[in-house]
Amino acid sequence: MISCVCACGKCYYCKKGIYAHCEDEGGWIFGHLIDGMQAEYLRVPHADNTLYYTPEDLSDEALVMLSDILPTGYEIGVLKGKVEPGCSVAIIGSGPVGLAALLTAQFYSPAKLIMVDLDDNRLETALSFGATHKVNSSDPEKAIREIYDLTDGRGVDVAIEAVGIPATFDFCQKIIGVDGTVANCGVHGKPVEFDLDKLWIRNINVTTGLVSTTTTPQLLKALESHKIEPEKLVTHYFKLSEIEKAYEVFSKAADHHAIKVIIENDISEA
């Protein structure tokens, strides 16, 4: 079974379907208010509301992605970004969440799926996952011009920010087209500068969000029908006893061509 967000189903936010903000020992608490998402055992509040049975023929790797990465990219990036057939989408950051947004954006047949990153290996990976174009942003001004060239000078309809730093948010607001949407998935630890003086006239939308995993049933069906294969995001495996090595590898993801790391339990019960 899988679960990502706890939901009591009765509080103000749960009744609105915003389960990430559940007020009764729920919400986004795994690894935050409840210790131990990389532990042998985990207590799941309101498990009767939030656990899903998983088909036996689905791999553990695919299901791990479904517990967090996949619904984050889908709900906060693709759905809030209003991706639709024929539109142009730029995804800034080809890490796990950005690649999850890339996989699920293809449900809606956008005309252009432009992946933007500093890491050429991840950009090549994005092309193999369905991106139509790649843009290296090591020279931001050149990258911005390239995106405008790809969109006939109009900018993109949807810009999905999947990094969480001021530079990538700034990049999004510089490439967004008229009536476009900047969908912020990244977790920001610092303020960003919002160019409202330039953007107020362009009818843009800016969305943010915390994943509520309301799309889990839909994504499970997509996995069962093999519409998407998120298990391909997994590049490295480590035992729980090697957790420090795993963190070291992921901290230098570009050097190790790491995208997503799986931790396997190798500690026997006392």
Task: Give an account of the 3D structure.
With about 270 residues, this protein is of the alpha/beta class. Helices cover about 35% and strands about 15% of the residues. Strands 3-2-1-4-5-6 form a six-stranded parallel beta sheet, sandwiched between helices. The chain has a two-stranded parallel sheet with strand order 7-8.
Calculate the terminal CA-CA distance, rounded to whole Å: 24 Å
Shape: globular
Radius of gyration: 19 Å
Output the strand order for the largest sheet. 3-2-1-4-5-6
Low-pLDDT segments: none
Number of strands: 8
Q: What's the overall average pLDDT, rounded?
A: 92
Q: Structural class of the secondary elements?
A: alpha/beta
How does the major sheet shape up? 6 strands, parallel
Sketch the topology as an H/E string, one letter per element.
Answer: HHHHEHEHEHEHEHEHEHHE
Sequence-ordered SSE layout with sheet pairings:
Elements: H1 12-15, H2 47-50, H3 60-66, H4 69-81, E1 88-92, H5 96-105, E2 112-117, H6 120-128, E3 133-136, H7 140-150, E4 156-161, H8 166-175, E5 176-184, H9 196-199, E6 205-207, H10 216-224, E7 234-239, H11 243-251, H12 253-256, E8 260-264
Parallel strand pairs: 1-2, 1-4, 2-3, 4-5, 5-6, 7-8
Give a quick summary of the entry.
The chain has 270 residues and is of the alpha/beta class. It is built from 12 helices and 8 strands.
